[in-house]
Structure formats: C-alpha cells, structure tokens
TrEMBL record:
Pfam families for this protein: CinA, CinA_KH, MoCF_biosynth
Domain MoaB/Mog: 4-171
Signal peptide range: none
SUPFAM superfamilies: CinA-like, Molybdenum cofactor biosynthesis proteins
UniProt record similarity statement: Belongs to the CinA family.
Bilayer-crossing regions: none
Name of the protein this chain belongs to: CinA-like protein
Domain of life: Bacteria
NCBIfam families xref list: cinA_nterm (TIGR00200), molyb_syn (TIGR00177), PncC_domain (TIGR00199), PRK00549.1 (NF001813)
C-alpha cells in the first residue's frame, strides 16, 4: 500500500524550520509495511496545496499532510481541504471539547481564534489531539484516505502512533518490509560498486540494494518485501557472509546506528572505558559520545589539547617530538593517546591531531591532513588521513574515523568475531 507525505509551510522552504516530520513519518510507516513513494514540501497557498493533493490522490492510496492548522490567518490548510472535498466548515463539538480541555488552566478564556479551530470540513472525521488545539482530520473518499495533522512534531507523532497507523493497518493489508544495513568505511562508492557487481547479481528478485554514501563511509541497505521472514533472514545471512569475503575489515557494523552508539554499546558490553585527547576535533568526539544516554558507564573524559603547551603539560607529549615532527604527526598523536589513557586511567583512548582548515596547510601537510591514534591493551595503532578542505566535514570525519578505528579493533579482539 502506497503513501505520500506532504509537509506544508513557507518556513520549511526558506530553511527557517527543518522538516523532521516527514523523515520520522517515513520511518514509522516503512516499519509497519507501508510503501512511502514520495515526500513533498510546499508553500502555504491554497493553489499549491490543491495542486499537489490532486496529483497525489491519483497516484497513491493514502496521503498524509502536516502543517497549516493553526488559528492564524496564514494557516489555510483546513479551508483548502474543505474546498477540495466540496465541503463546508462546520462547528464540531468533539474538536471544541478537545481544544477546551487542552487550554484549561493555560488561558483565562477561549477567544475567537481558538474557537475557530473547532470548525472543520463537514465531510471529515475528527481524531482526538490531546496535546494540542488543532484537530486531526481523517478524510475517506473514493477509496482514498487523506489525513491532515498538525505540524508540531509532538502532536503529529502522538496522532500517528495512537490513531493513524492503527487505523491504516485495519483498513489495508500491508506487505512485510525488512531491512538489513551493513556499514562500510574507507572505500569510495564507485570502487565498492565495482567490487560488488557479481555479488549484486545474486540478490534475490524480492530484494533490492541501495548505496547510501556519506563522507568516509557507505551504508549498504538490503530491503526485502516478502511475507516469508525465515527465507529473508536466510538470504540476509548469506549475502552478509559473502560481503565479508569481498570487503573484509572495511565492514564495521551490521546495523543502521551512528558510530557513537555502536562504540558505546561495545564498550558497555565489555565493561571497558574510553578517554579522548582532541586537537583538530576540538571536543567533538567527547560531544558525540556523551550525547548517548548512559555514556557515563564507559566514558572517563577528555582533553582538548589545542595548543602545543597543553599537549606537553597535560598529556606528556615530548617537546622534541613536537619540534622534530610537528603537532600533526604520528609521533605526537600516539603520545597524546597514551598520555590521556594514563592520565584518566581508561582502558582505551582516541587521539586526533590535524589541519581542519580552511588555512594552515603546507605542501607537506595540506589542509585536511589528520593523524588519528587509538591506544589500549593492543598497544597503539595510528593512521594518517586526507579528508579535504571543508573544515566542518574534516572535524566530523576525523571524529567518526577515530571511533570506527577503535570499534574495528574491539571487533578483532572479540571472541564472537
């Protein structure tokens, strides 16, 4: 069963607000077996809403809209939907009671703008919205479903999980959609695709493969549309095993989670701890690690050693190493990793030192040169990378690469691997 998502609001188109609604909705719908075929963001105009909605109902079974349901004049979705369905706005007691209940204790009285939200197209079914004043509206006409929800994420999410998805499941028989994601690093997309050409030819017809590249890594997503879970899992296992034979240690994960989540889970499972010494990443690794709930169980802390004096005085980097090789060097970054591991008494450490840019590079060490070291009971492992000229991307890539390096080392030492 196919679904289209339409998000409404000028603020989405000018970048004032980021559209997180459609991404969340698409994920939830896909997990329940619904096939999301298109996502569109449009202006707050009756013409645009009508045009896009008219096209959508010709293509799919269900259209879901968010936004434009507030009490102010720029919120025109409700009026436009009434005209689209050749209906009229009428007072709805259910919508009024819901709105009054939500506003009780929040305002002294219900004004005319609030009261206007109780008027809805006569042809729709109103669905309760306990966390807001805007009604959720369900239209069912000519075997097509159109659902209009508030743009406020918390209101939309509650309506989706409690009402909309359960209703759609009752109405439509959905197929089963399964995913398997394998994360690969340090292989360019074109090179990886060439390596996997013969492997791709063995993928069953009911499955599809997608390459999802980002700087320094690629997610390979296998999607199966089938009612036979056992067969799909068998094929997933075969394909994954064959993939390891082709790209080996470039695979660092078999689930679609950020590296900080994967590394944290590995550290927590083994009851090991981590410390970081960061120069060019400026504390970004510590930020990524600590944004995960429960990271205090495995993260000791970090040192942002931006100046050479801090590298020497706090981390114990030898002055001669800095003079002979420079801050961006194998010798220095390895000493940083060892130093922070000893300083904070952690089991493992990650250290970074590089030239993030946009200036500061030389012919020998251009912008984007980054040395990364990891230290642990395996000793010290280090590598030099050339990430490019974009500062923000260099910081992010260095942060993620350091964590991937450590995760790969932990996987090598795991008895299950």
């Amino acid at each position: 069963m196919q679904v289209e998502i339409i998000t409404i609001g000028n603020e989405l188109l000018i970048g004032q607000v980021v559209d997180t609604n459609s991404a969340w909705m698409g994920q939830q719908l896909n997990e329940e077996g619904f096939d999301v075929v298109r996502i569109t963001s449009i202006q707050d105009t009756a013409e645009e809403i009508t045009t896009v909605l008219s096209e959508a109902v010709k293509r799919v079974d269900v259209v879901m809209l968010t936004g434009g349901l507030g009490p102010t004049k720029d919120d025109i979705t409700k009026d436009t939907l009434a005209a689209f369905f050749n209906s009229k706005l009428v007072f709805n007691q259910h919508a009024y009671d819901n709105m009054a209940s939500y506003l009780k204790g929040r305002v002294k009285g219900i004004n005319k703008l609030n009261e206007s939200q109780a008027y809805v197209p006569e042809c729709c079914e109103v669905i309760n919205n306990p966390v807001g004043t805007a009604p959720v509206m369900w239209f069912d006409e000519n075997d097509k479903i159109v659902v209009s929800m508030p743009g406020v994420p918390s209101e939309m999410k509650l309506a989706m999980t409690k009402e909309i998805i359960p209703r759609l499941q009752q109405r439509f028989k959905t197929g089963h959609i399964m995913h398997k994601t394998i994360q690969v690093c340090n292989i360019p997309e074109a090179v990886l695709a060439e390596q996997l050409e013969a492997w791709e030819a063995t993928i069953p017809n009911y499955m599809s493969l997608a390459y999802l590249p980002s700087p320094g890594k690629i997610r390979l997503r296998l999607t199966a549309k089938t009612a036979n879970d056992e067969q799909a899992n068998t094929d997933f296992e075969r394909l994954t095993s064959e993939l390891y034979q082709l790209v080996g240690e470039n695979i660092y994960a078999e689930e679609d989670s950020p590296i900080e989540v994967l590394l944290g889970a590995s550290l927590k499972e083994s009851s090991r701890t981590l410390a970081v010494a960061e120069s060019c990443t400026g504390g970004n690794i510590a930020h990524l690690v600590t944004r995960i709930p429960g990271s205090s169980a495995y993260f000791k802390g970090g040192v942002v050693a931006y100046e050479n004096m801090v590298k020497q005085k706090v981390l114990g980097v030898e002055e001669q190493a800095l003079l002979n090789y420079g801050a961006v060097s194998q010798q220095v970054v390895e000493q940083m990793a060892i130093g922070v591991k000893e300083l904070l008494q952690s089991d493992y450490a990650i250290a970074t030192s590089g030239i993030a840019g946009p200036d500061g590079g030389t012919d020998e060490k251009p912008v984007g040169t980054v040395w990364i070291a990891i230290a642990g009971d395996f000793g010290v492992v280090s590598a030099c990378y050339q990430f490019g000229r974009i500062r923000e991307r260099n910081i992010q890539r260095a942060s993620e690469t350091g964590m991937i390096m450590l995760l790969q080392q932990l996987k090598r030492r795991s008895p299950d691997v």
